[in-house]
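Suppose a colleague, Dr. K., hands you the sequence of a protein chain of 158 amino acids and asks what its three-dimensional shape might be. Before reaching for any lab equipment, you can write down a predicted structure in token form. Begin with the sequence itself:
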Amino acid sequence: MIRTAVVTDVPVIHALIRELADYEKAPHEAVATEEQLRDALFGAAPAVFGLIAEDDTTGEPVGFAIWFLNFSTWRGTHGIYLEDLYVRPQARGGGHGKALLLELARIAVERGYSRMEWSVLDWNLPSINFYKSLGAVPMDGWSVYRLTGEALAAAGGR
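The predicted structure, expressed as tokens, is then:
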């Protein structure tokens, strides 16, 4: 059901990212190209990793997880930051999302990582309830900040 992404998965990963962007009501923000994804996931020094969830009967991809390493200075170990987790609507409820998260947890434990972290939109109650059912807790008191576009260019002196 869950396997490591391979380079031939790039077109489906790209399509799933577009579907996720639509679901999150931000399709205009998903501008990554297949070439960028191929380089990030499978280039000379990949720092981003992917998992694919497949339908047990057909073998068709129905979801994905994209993740990368972060680091906790307090714990002195790496962790996993889950950038995206998405399961197609017709496959939801089939255990694919849970299987993706459990595979990431297995990787973290096997490699001695101390955390898994991710963000979720405040309005996405089905996902929030799902994460809580697995024992995940919100990081109350913390807010995510982002520099991008013109603000990033200005801060970077360009």
